[in-house]
Design brief:
- The complex is a heterodimer of chains A (about 550) and B (about 450).
- Chain A is mainly α and about 550 residues long.
- Chain A contains 14 helices and 1 strand; from the N terminus they run H-H-H-H-H-E-H-H-H-H-H-H-H-H-H.
- With about 450 residues, chain B is mainly β.
- Chain B has a domain of about 120 residues: Methylamine Dehydrogenase, Chain H (7 Propeller).
- Chain B has 1 helix and 41 strands.
- In chain B, strands 29-28-34-33-32-31 form a 6-stranded mixed beta sheet, with no helix packed on it. In chain B, strands 1, 2, 39, 40 and 41 form a 5-stranded antiparallel beta sheet that branches.
- In chain B, a hairpin with a 5-residue loop joins strand 39 and strand 40.
- The radius of gyration of chain B is 23 Å and the shape is globular.
- Chain B starts with a strand and ends in a 6-residue tail after the last strand.
- Classes of the chains: A mainly alpha (about 550), B mainly beta (about 450).
- Strand 1 of chain A pairs antiparallel with strand 10 of chain B, so a sheet runs across the interface.
Chain lengths: ~550, ~450
């Protein structure tokens, strides 16, 4: 649009006739306005003179002034004359009016600018909208055409689908029909067959009658002599008993067959149960112990352990002989649980491995691997060291063997390796011999004690026998004597009555060792030997 | 392997005696009994007409010779060659004849399956079983010979009667839920009877010895069903071969299918060994040429040697497409046999006629496939060890064992096309039968 130049328009007296022409050639303002009202676009400086001189000339100054005054007052400005209907100009008001007019002019110019800008904007908006509208219209057309096309296709496909359904139905109907035909033909054939068969049966009956009539003439068996039965027995009459026997035989055959099969099944069952047991044990052994932690399987843990216990008990009781439902179910359930746990464990391991392969940073895994590597390095170092040590040892040994030295030194050298051991052994031998001597002593004392005890026992028995005799023969007198005697005896050999009873109850068997170690004199009194041992332990 | 010379034979009638000492063979109307080890003629009997069927009694003392055209059965005794017995069915006709397990009764099935007559060699009594079923396997004896099951049909319904063989008393009589019973077979333990339906319906019923229905098995509907069945020697498994080229194995505990064996024309599993018979070009050993050429060498010139090669998997087998609109098409598993130790099952799929499939029963997997150059005629397991002998209509006999397989040319002059074979009960020898001749082959202990 270009910049509007604010031109200070000087009031110049100049040839102004052209103004009217100029302005009338310009745009036509609104018809309501007076033709004398000027609309001022930017006039060029050349036309300035003509413009400004056209309105007021020397002849019509008063008229121009009065006209101006009229216009200004109608526009709301104060009058330019000092007094109304006067002839003297109020210069101040004229200047004010001019200023006002300028301001107004500016305002109008601005407003005009704005309006024209807006006008242009609107015009461009309109263009834009029209373009959009045109495009959208085009698009709408296209879409409509597309829709129509798709609808057409959809319709075609639907008809095709319907046709195919129809074909399928037709085929199915045909199949059904054929089947019906087949079945009806089959029944027809059966019926015909039956009819023919009946006829045939009738013929057969007739023939049979004819044959039976001629029976006595031709149908016979000629045999030189009758043969004995295969099993050598005589033929038997057919009676009810034989019938019953036959039934019995048949049932026996069936029963034996069933029993055989049941046995086979039992054996198979037992084997399978054994295999299951084994599997269970192996699964348990495969599972790592931390899987049994209660925090991971709180609900399964105690249950499992209970089951384990129960099944453990059952295992002890020859489980494969029990075949009741609950036991069977328990076994299979426990195996299933174990197997599930093992499967989870293996899956976890797989995940771990895959994570390690993919290089994900999981502290445990990474550290474990590093640890692993460190460990291997350490172990390798150790191996190196050990190898070196072995080498040095070997070298030393070689030197020892190879170095030439006289017999004494070699003997000494050989001995010095074993010296310590020899001394230790000798110590031990000494100790052993001492202990042996002690044992011998003790044994001798024991045997002597045993002999003594034996003698005492003998004496006691004799006394007892005598006392009993006395008691039986003379009951009154000797009671007191016997009592006193028994009381005397009691403190003397405290343990002997008790041990006598124990002797009689213990079996008369000696272990081989004791028999071998005791001297021959002991064999005659085995009980005493045991008794003495009993004493020792007590 | 030693081969005996050729002997004349008619009708593929050559049977080893149950005690393994004798071999009976028929030539037209003569019955020749030979000693097994020396093949010397022990006895020679002459029958009244051409013999159609011979059978040894269980104690190897008697042989029956059945002549269906004349309706006569003649029984010969080995101990007393003078003893004779002739059973004449006369106008009733004769369709089948067999011994009872005790070796003293003969069961004759009259024409049109009118009745089964039980003739006794010990007494003069005769028993009749009415309404027997006209099917392939209508009579079945248990292995211990105690019970006999007979399939019957009355009023268009199938029944099974169980008789006690010692006194021919009827033990049980029950109806079966079959459309048209095709066959019955006892399990080796004698406690279960398998009854199966015609090939139009896939249905197999298992009955206990006392007549209770234990289980029914149906694999599918509408398509052709069961073609052949076989019990395993321990009665643990029942193999069912069907027209859909599959073998289904049922187990004896639940009578449910435990596995299916398929017989595809292409074998892709790398763990299967495929032995393919290939012809070896006969080596012309020029130093041995002699004029005039001896008979033996002449035959060896013209007969091609063959050997087995291991084919690399995947292998595509030669198969034929059966004619679609004929009855009893050559499709499906038609031959089934378990080995004596229960470890292997040999099968033949009829539309892959040149191959024998050997399945490992312990692993329930295909173990070996033997592909021959011509169609398999018959195969039979050794009764003692896991060894399979098979013949394909040429003069070779093929043996397979887990150690390997071998193709043996029978050194015979002239044409000897082996159509059937049967093992001796000891597993040391076997009889190789052709249309007109037979020979006995002796195997050494260290053979394959």
């Amino acid at each position: 649009m270009g910049d509007w130049k604010t031109v200070t328009v000087p009031v110049l007296p100049s040839d102004g006739k052209n103004i009217f022409q100029y302005t009338s050639e310009r745009r036509i303002s609104s018809p309501g306005m007076n033709s004398q009202v000027l609309r001022l676009p930017l006039p060029s400086s050349k036309s300035m003179h003509t413009f400004f001189s056209a309105f007021c000339t020397e002849e019509n100054i008063e008229q121009s002034l009065s006209y101006l005054d009229r216009e200004l007052t109608t526009l709301g400005f104060p009058s330019i004359f000092a007094e109304p209907r006067g002839r003297e100009l109020n210069l101040i008001s004229v200047i004010n009016c001019m200023n006002e007019l300028l301001v107004l002019q500016h305002k109008n110019l601005r407003a005009q600018e704005e309006v024209e800008m807006q006008h242009l904007k609107l015009g461009s908006d309109m263009d834009h909208l029209q373009n959009c509208y045109a495009k959208l219209k085009e698009q709408l057309e296209l879409s409509k055409r597309e829709i129509v096309g798709l609808q057409e296709r959809d319709r075609q496909l639907q008809t095709k689908n319907r046709n195919l359904h129809q074909l399928l139905k037709n085929e199915k109907d045909e199949v059904q029909k054929l089947q019906n035909i087949i079945s009806s033909r089959a029944t027809q054939y059966n019926h015909d067959m039956k009819r023919k068969e009946r006829e045939y049966n009738k013929l057969k009956e007739r023939l049979h009658q004819l044959v039976m009539n001629k029976k006595d003439k031709k149908i016979a068996m000629e045999v030189l002599n009758y043969v004995g039965r295969a099993d050598g027995k005589r033929g038997a009459w057919r009676t009810d008993k034989t019938e019953a026997r036959n039934e019995e035989e048949m049932y026996k055959v069936l029963l034996s067959d069933f029993e055989q099969r049941q046995k086979q099944l039992l054996v198979e069952n037992a084997e399978l149960k054994k295999v299951l047991q084994q599997m269970k044990k192996e699964i348990i052994s495969l599972l790592p112990p931390q899987k049994q932690k209660p925090k991971e399987r709180s609900e399964d843990g105690p249950v499992l352990s209970d089951l384990e216990e129960d099944i453990g008990e059952l295992n002890k009781e020859n489980m494969w002989e029990l075949s009741c439902e609950t036991v069977r179910e328990q076994l299979t359930n426990s195996i299933r649980k174990q197997w599930r746990m093992l499967k989870n464990h293996v899956e976890k391991l797989d995940n771990q491995v895959s994570r390690v392969h993919s290089g994900a940073l999981n502290d445990k895994d990474v550290i474990s691997r590093e640890d692993h590597e460190l460990e291997t390095e350490k172990l390798e170092l150790e191996i190196q060291q050990c190898k070196e040590m072995i080498k040095t040892q070997q070298q030393l040994l070689q030197q020892q063997l190879m170095s030439p030295c006289d017999d004494d030194t070699t003997l000494l050298l050989q001995d010095c390796y074993l010296l310590e051991e020899k001394e230790r052994l000798q110590e031990e031998w000494r100790l052993f011999r001492e202990q042996k001597k002690n044992f011998e002593k003790e044994r001798r004392s024991f045997t002597e004690a045993a002999i003594r005890l034996g003698l005492e026992r003998k004496a006691f028995e004799e006394d007892r026998g005598a006392w009993l005799k006395q008691q039986f023969l003379s009951p009154d007198q000797d009671n007191r004597l016997a009592k006193s005697a028994s009381r005397q005896r009691k403190p003397h050999c405290l343990s002997s009555p008790l041990s006598a009873e124990s002797w009689q109850q213990t079996p008369q068997s000696i272990t081989n060792n004791s028999a071998a170690s005791t001297p021959p004199a002991r064999d005659s009194k085995p009980n005493q030997w045991e008794e003495s041992e009993g004493e020792e332990t007590e | 392997m030693n081969f005996s010379e050729l002997f004349k034979l008619t009708g593929l009638l050559s049977r080893f005696s149950p005690n393994g000492k004798c071999l009976a063979s028929c030539v037209q109307y003569r019955l020749v009994v030979r000693d097994v080890s020396t093949l010397q003629v022990l006895q020679l009997y002459t029958c009244l007409d051409q013999i159609q069927h011979i059978e040894w009694s269980s104690d190897s003392l008697f042989i029956l010779c059945a002549m269906y055209k004349r309706g006569i059965v003649q029984v010969w005794s080995l101990e007393q060659p003078d003893w004779h017995c002739k059973i004449d069915e006369g106008s009733a006709g004769l369709v089948a004849s067999c011994w009872s397990p005790d070796g003293r009764h003969i069961l004759n099935t009259t024409e049109f399956h009118l009745r089964i007559t039980v003739w006794s060699l010990c007494t003069k009594s005769v028993s009749y079983i009415k309404y027997p079923k006209a099917c392939q396997q209508g009579i079945a004896f248990t292995k211990d010979g105690r019970y006999m099951a007979v399939a019957e049909r009355r009023d268009c319904k199938d029944f099974v009667s169980i008789f006690v063989c010692s006194d021919w008393q009827l033990l049980r009589h029950f109806d079966t839920e079959t459309q048209d019973l095709f066959g019955i077979e006892w399990a080796p333990n004698g406690c279960v009877l398998a009854v199966w339906d015609t090939c139009l319906e896939y249905k197999i019923l298992l009955y206990s010895l006392d007549g209770r229905l234990l289980s029914t098995y149906r694999a599918y509907e509408w398509s052709l069903g069961i073609k052949s069945i076989a019990w395993s020697p321990s009665s643990q498994f029942l193999a069912i071969g069907s027209y859909d080229e599959k073998v289904r194995i049922l187990n004896h505990v639940t009578w449910k299918k435990i596995t299916e064996f398929e017989h595809p024309t292409t074998i892709a599993n790398t763990k299967t060994i495929v032995y393919k018979e290939v012809e070896k070009s006969p080596s012309a050993e020029t130093e041995r040429l002699s004029l005039p050429p001896s008979r033996a060498s002449a035959s060896s010139w013209f007969s091609t040697q063959s050997k087995y090669d291991i084919s690399q998997v995947p292998v595509s087998l030669h198969h034929i497409k059966p004619v679609a609109d004929r009855a009893n098409p050559k499709i499906g598993v038609g031959m089934l046999a378990f080995s004596a130790d229960n470890c292997f099952l040999a099968t033949k799929n009829d539309n892959i006629p040149n191959a024998v499939w050997i399945w490992d029963i312990q692993k329930l997997k295909l173990f070996v496939v033997l592909e021959q150059l011509s169609a398999i005629q018959s195969f039979q397991w050794d009764p003692r060890q896991p060894r399979l002998a098979l013949c394909t209509g040429n003069s070779k006999v093929y043996l397979w064992s887990p150690a390997g397989c071998v193709s043996v040319q029978v050194p015979m002059e002239g044409d000897f096309q082996i159509v059937s074979l049967s093992w001796h009960s000891s597993g040391d020898s076997m009889a190789l039968l052709s249309k007109d001749n037979f020979c006995v082959c002796y195997l050494e202990r260290e053979e394959v």
